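Repro:
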Amino acid sequence: MAIQLPSVHEVLYDPSMEELRDQYGLNALTEAIRTIQDSQRVSVKSKTMMSTPTPQDYVSLVSSWLASNRSGGYRRVFNLTGIVLHSNLGRAPISPAAIEKVSAIVSNPSTLEFNRQTGKRGHRDDVVKERLCHLIGCESATFVNNNAAALLLVVNTFAKGKSAIVSRSELIEIGGSFRLPEIIESSGCKLVEVGTTNRTHLRDYANAISSNVGLILKVHQSNFRIEGFTNEVDTPSLAELAQQSNLPLAVDLGSGALTNLDQFGLPNEPQPQDVLKQGADLVTFSGDKLLGGPQAGIVVGSKKYVDELNRNPLKRALRLDKLTLGLLDQTLKTYENPDDINKQIPLYRTLSTPTRQLKHRANMVQSRLAELLPEHDVTIEASKCQLGSGSLPEQSLNSICVSISASTESPLMGLSERLRALSIPIISRIHKGAIKLDMLTAEDLDQLLETLGELN
């Protein structure tokens, strides 16, 4: 009897393929089936295929092909790397409660740019601007899609065709090899570097001021430190110089904490409201770092200067969408009740995890892995976590990790790949000949243990 392969459509829409359809989509799945069947036709022709395959027989073949040839789309992962705000893993998690509240708004027509009181067009930033201004006491605020965009907008608005003064000690490189000088110069502005790598004085800024200067920029050294024989000019001194020179002073904070970090055993980062009180005209910071919200670039400060930012055509190109604005609004609302911050914002809930809970997680994970991986040595040890994403690079958080050791590096690399191939990929780190699974970010313990069971 001749072997007849099932049709692509028959395999594609078989119930056994439902999970793969959801994960990869129809186009990738169709390509996988056709590729596999091309190979099978060769086997049929050479008479090495002994029986007609059913649609169900294709599940493992298609799954393997897709795993090797397609990304599989965006996936939830367990971030057990020991880096809490991991840039490659989405930085700050968003509160499920915030997502639930926003979903009803963004899935229907909303008052995004509509003023209910007047019945006329409104501005999409008004809701979050009003909330943030009340929260930190600033005159005005505006919002774009990330902090690099916020900085680009500020420099382009006030120094396009002119110059911006920046200390050499603050010309940082951020994630993805994006460098501050390149961002500034792409705005149409000439960068004027003052001072040296380790020491910059107020006179350096003063000597650089001319009629062609449009902006003084100070960048908070959030992702590195220079120690030893150093000097930098503080914000109050720069603010006085900027005022005397009739120039705006912008301060890029980067991380942008809105709460004191000493409660987590960390040194406090400058807060936007404090920098404004020191005389800065504009302050820029991120939404998805220490704020604990969605990706956004936030600019707060003088109404006069923020109004100029909003008149810049770039603002429309860089503006936030309705989903991000809704999530940012819900995140900022949480800050209005300080008692809710540690409970409702996932970042701060993570940082508040008690040691006894970390030990419980470690014991459960160690016990499960010891059963599943008898050929490995699975132990519990103290560890250090980093906040990540350029936040407090020199400071670490005490944590506990589960360590998986083997006699050679090869089995560890293979195990690391197996962990990444699980239904919910587990992202770990390899350090000193062992895989480390950090427990500070292992909040969903039941789901983690269930996922680890797939190693069996």
